[in-house]
Write a structure and sequence with these properties.
The complex is a heterodimer of chains A (about 190) and B (about 325).
Chain A lengths: L1 H17 L13 H4 L51 E2 L9 H16 L4 E7 L6 H21 L7 E7 L10 H7 L1 E7 L1
Parallel strand pairs in A: 2-3
Antiparallel strand pairs in A: 1-4, 2-4
Helix pairs in contact in A: 1-3
Chain B lengths: L1 E5 L2 E9 L6 E10 L3 H13 L11 E6 L11 E6 L6 E2 L7 E6 L5 E6 L6 E6 L4 E4 L7 E6 L5 E6 L6 E6 L6 E2 L7 E6 L5 E6 L6 E6 L6 E2 L7 E6 L7 E6 L10 E6 L5 E3 L6 E7 L5 E8 L2 E8 L5 E3 L7 E6 L2
Antiparallel strand pairs in B: 1-2, 2-3, 4-5, 4-27, 5-6, 7-8, 8-9, 9-10, 11-12, 12-13, 13-14, 15-16, 16-17, 17-18, 19-20, 20-21, 21-22, 23-24, 24-25, 25-26
Classes of the chains: A alpha+beta (about 190), B mainly beta (about 325).
Amino acid sequence: MKRQTIPLLLVALIFTLGCPKKRPPAVLTESGQRAGAHAPATATPEPEPEQPVTEGPDIAAVPRGNPSGEDFTVNDATGENGPLEDIRFDYDKAELSDVARATLERHGLWLQNHRTAKVTIEGHCDERGTVDYNLALGDKRARAVRDYLASLGVAADRLHTVSLGKERPLDPANNEQAFAKNRRAHFVVSR
Amino acid sequence: MRAQVTAGELAVETRVFSVDGRQVMLSKRYSGRADNPRSFAHQASDDIVALTQYRGVARSKIAFTSDRDATKPPRGKELYIVDYDGFNAKRITVNNSLNILPAWSPDGRSLAYTSYRQGSPAIFVARIFEGRSDNITKNEGQAFAPTFSPDGKRLAYASNKSGNLEIWIANADGTGAHRITSSHGSDTAPTWSPTGQEIAFTSDRAGSPQIYLMDSEGLNVRRLTTVGNWNDAPAWNPSKEYSEIAYTSRLEVGGPIRFDIAVVDLATRQVRQVTAGRGSCEYPSWAPNGRHLVFSCKRGNTWQITVSDREGRTIDTLSAGPGNNVQPDWGP
């Protein structure tokens, strides 16, 4: 039960803190396609009760998506160094630790604030396991992360999972520190 | 055996006599261009072995995955094929993505494999003599570990299209895809029986990864392995002579985590250990005649393709070239 209530409180917090103070009047944005590119300025917004719909006669409905042209960095060409840090897993486990949950809650907040960002969640394993089993384990890790982010209110269509198994270790070294780094969910952010 | 080169033309004569010298069991003359003498030796070798009840493997090829050409991050993996003796390596994929888990078609003209070139892992079939490669699992979530049915008409693979990883079967061109397992665990690593009527696979539905059997419609599922808490990567012996499945097993409890190759007899359920003390070995595949195994072992810091007889009496590292060489599949 404790695990149920914390995310809900956080969702509330996210929506309180996460909404931009001032919304520009523009209807069409980079993500205007989703709102309907030819929609009139008074179009009804997509149902999203947490979003303010109108704030006055001179302010039109705010479409879903980023209203202000978001500024964020994405992962580099190697797929590393993105805005969302990795979370780690225990050996042969796909369960989220408390530390992992806390990190994912920050990621959920970031994703609420950067609504044009899409994320590929990669599930990785250390090399101490068989090829096929590790692909299955990486799949479970990525899905556990996706499900938790979705439970925080991130739209499922912004989250994509991929299992890398033990095929692309972050650190190829053969020791406990490298193994710990390689048991991870990694986030590749795109616009 | 006698060999002679005249004007770029190689002629090899092979004769086999019975031990008492009275009977000529084989007499053959091979001739052709002299630039590939190894192919003469392989042909002659297979003809000699054919005098026994067995098929030779000297002209067969082994496909595998290697990182040898990955020069910068993100580190890619490509598919390669080599002759059964490790020579004559040829690169098959050239896309700098991850290309893994190759599986030969029974006619030796295609390789099915898993590729991340379009982002999500999908099943591709490469027609290796035409230089073509097609994605046969479009819009199907993630798909891994394809394997051709013995008649080459169908593929079994693992896909998470329905939520978690299950075993799916499709025609070799990807049409008619349908799921044949349904469990809360992850079902992976399918392998066909020589008749095509049964499939063995790995599932962690009972808590730890174990090998299960079912018929190829997905019915009559039963657990095969009971020894050890980690069994994976089943490979069904393709010969009708031996009814057995090779697999990867964690046989030692405690100590560093490492794996060995084991074989379970399907009639007696007796398990025999093929590798011991060679570092960690995994991912076995049978030679087409069912008398040899190939797998990958990590000794020191690199993974190398390793071959053995089916008992594990003779085990050799194949000199398949630089890099980490893994996931071998022994083809026709």
